[in-house]
Amino acid sequence: MLAALYRAEQLPYHLGKALENGLSVEELSEAITHLAFYAGRPNAMTAIQQLKQVTDRQPSA
């Protein structure tokens, strides 16, 4: 929803919390891919970039 509303600056916080709450990177990627059909590919690509930045900052398990 944030990506669709051009609120990409808020995505890292929410993506990080989603990961902390048990969602997998794959699940988040699938949700963002689904978003592309409704909010447009540019918004989805921004969200994917934000997800990559969040996962790059996460410590390895």
Descriptors for this entry?
61 residues; single chain; 69% helix; mainly alpha
Please provide a written account of the structure.
Helix 1 crosses helix 3 (41-57) and helix 2 (25-39) runs antiparallel to helix 3. The chain has 3 helices and no strands. The protein has one domain. It starts with 10 loop residues before the first helix and ends with a helix. Helix content is 69%, strand content 0%. The protein has helices at 11-20, 25-39, 41-57. The protein is globular and about 30 Å long. The model has no long low-confidence stretch (mean pLDDT 87). It is mostly helical.
What would you say about this model in short?
Pfam families: CMD. This protein is mainly α.
